[in-house]
Each structure stands twice: as C-alpha cells, then as structure tokens.
Amino acid sequence: MQRQPNFENLRRTILRQGPPGPVPFFDVTADLGMVEAVLGEKFPIDLSRYVDYTADLGMVEAVLGEKLSIDLSRHVDEAFADVSADDLQELMKAADMYVRFWCEMGYDYVPVPTDLDFQRHLIPLADTAALANRAGGERYWQDETSGPIQSWKDFEAYPWPKVDQLPHIALQYVNAVLPEGMKICAQLFGGVFANARYLMGFQSLCYALHDQPDLVEAVCQRVGELVTGVATQVVTCDNVGMLVETDDMGFHSGTLVSPDVIRHYILPHHKRIAEVAHGAGKLFALHSCGNVHKLMDDFIDYVGIDAKHSFEDKILPVEEVYRRWGDRVTILGGVDMDLLGRGTEEQVRARTRQILEVCGTKGTGYCLGTGNSVANYIPVRNYLAMLDEGRRWNREHFGGA
Fold first, then answer.
1. Predicted TM-score (pTM) of this structure
2. How far are the Cα atoms of 254, 284, 393 from residue 295, in angstroms, in the given order?
3. 79-119 confidence digits (pLDDT tens)
4. What one-character DSSP code corresponds to residue 53?
5. pLDDT by residue (tens digit) across 221-254?
6. What are the backbone dihedrals phi and psi of residue 263, each rounded to the nearest 5 degrees, phi first?
7. For the chain, what are the domain ranges?
8. Fold (topology level) of 7-23+109-131+148-393
9. Which of 3, 134, 165, 114 is nearest to 71 (CA)?
C-alpha cells in the first residue's frame, strides 16, 4: 500500500490538536536485521561499524529483509577514516534503504541516532534470540558493577567527547534524501541518567550517592551539558522535527534510584533539553523503560515533555496510562513486547485493536507502536500484523491511514 508520509499529522497528534485524524505510528528504533527481513533484501554493506549498537541494527535488517554491509558499532569518525570511495557509495545506498524502511512501513519520520558516544565498560555476549535477525550475532551488555569513572582522578582523566567536533554525518545525509512529507526524529541515545550510570557503573553510582555525592553531581552535570550541547546542534538541521531522549530510569516496580535523586540530578537537564527543542519549534519526547509513574507529573509539568514512550503490560497497560495522563501528554506505543515476541498474529491483531479502541478514538494524543522497539526477536509477521491492523482501524474510523 502506497502512502504519503505526513509529519504534520504526527505533530498534530502529539500536540493533541484538532481536528481528529488518523493515528500515526511511532517506534524509537528498529534492529537492522529486522529491517532486512521486512524489506526482503540485504544491506549492501556492514553497517555495524557505523552506528552504535543501541540502534538495534538487527531488527532494521530483519524488517527490510536485507543485511547492513558495514559494521556500524565503531565511532563514526573512526570508521570513516579508512572508508573507501566504493564503501562510501554502499553506505549511502544502505542509508537510502534504511530511510525506505521507515517510509514504507508507514512512519512519518526517520529516527537518526546522534553521534555523541561515551567510552564505557561493555560485555559482548552471543545473541540468544530465537530469530537470527541481528547483525553480527552479538549484543553488548553494560557492566553494572563498575565503570571508567570511580574517583575524581578518573573524572579528570576521562576522554570526554567534544561536541564541537561531532560530524553528524548520518543526520546530514538523511536530511538531504528525506522523502517529501517526512521529518527526522533525532535521538539522544542514553540520555543523562543512563550515561551517568554507564560511566560509573550502577552499583558504584549507588554507593557514590552516599559516599561521593559531589562526584555524582559532577558526572551528571558534565553529561547533561554534553547531551544538551548535542541537542542544540541537531535542532538546527532543516528537517529535524522532533527530539527523543532515551533515558531508562525504571524497572518493573519502581525507579532505579529514588525519585528525589532523579529530580535533583537529572530532571533539570531534561528540562533544558526540552527548552532547546521547543525553542527551535521541535517536538520533544522522552523514552524511559520501567515504572516511572512517580515521576510522570514531573515529566509533564516541570520538564515539559510533549510525549512519553515505552510501556509494558506487566507494569501498567497502555490503556491505563492513557486514562491517567493522556489528557496532559501524548502516549506513544504500548503493544507489549512479550506479546509481539511470543504471541500469534491473531493475538497481536486483537490486542492492537483493543488498544486503539481506548487510546485512538479521539484521533489525537496517541500513536501506535511497540512497547519498546522493533526488536530482533519479534517475528516479522507479528510486527507487520500490528501495523496492518493499525491501518485497517484508521480506514474504518478516519477513512485513511
């Protein structure tokens, strides 16, 4: 089905403005392997050298049905230092394919990760997903016991990224080839709390909150300044329509640290990033996994988010989230990852329609998508069933998709 992208409909929906219209689709990212699987073709080059592992490259490949042919896991500046002219051409073809995936699946934007990356302790392990939809067959896990910053000496010696030297190559290329009607969703991967946690190790950070609160403050301040600096850069890009900060702050029963710690060390930086986005006329959404319900009022009233992403039925079904906060902030996604990964196509269709009958009837304030991301362990048929049911529901209620 051919469809004209319409970012203005997405903007209208997220800003909860009338008149009612079709429910847009929203997902933060997709594994590259999933992109290949959906499109039924391979990326012309190994992209894992050129994008951070958090971009879920495997799912992108699986959905497109083709493999990325450049290893994107290396830093962009390092990777392009020795890239040949032929490989550069293949990279551009791969980027075109990535853009095509988001357009053909019915999204109104292309998510593009920013170049900011922190050196940290990662543990590579084999991907255990039942479906082979991930480039390289590995996933990287954060060392939660420790990190490169354990003391003031470590803080001073750490090679902090230099925002003014970031190339933003992917952003600039996608900006140049973006299909009519689409915009870029610039992604601030890791956010402030997550990157501070990565740099210190979660266990060490928790001890430091008691033993070295000044060090925690300094790490969060430096990370916050860098993430805000990147946001300030990317909002100047012509076709960036939205910023999404991904900053996981919770688990299934509560926040990872006390809400007051997050309010003190983290939320002032989120507020500044939101102000940067809004000052440039862009939307600002927050992705946080876990139960962060005690912070929702802070996100809405203090930070000023336009939309909240990442929901799980085990914590609170997205319909209940919509009932509690949907009159104040737009709710994104919420089709449970476990259902998408292990359910049948019929179950996925029924659940998608059930969600839309609660969250979509106003034609504003809700976007359909997965509860987290288009992960490589989701069967392609289930992912496509979710989108197809969304299109059918839109045609029935608004005469279009």
1. 0.89
2. 10, 17, 32
3. 444 567 777 788 889 999 999 999 999 999 999 998 788 88
4. G
5. 999 999 999 999 999 998 999 999 999 999 999 9
6. -60, -40
7. 7-23+109-131+148-393, 28-106+132-141
8. TIM Barrel (3.20.20)
9. 134
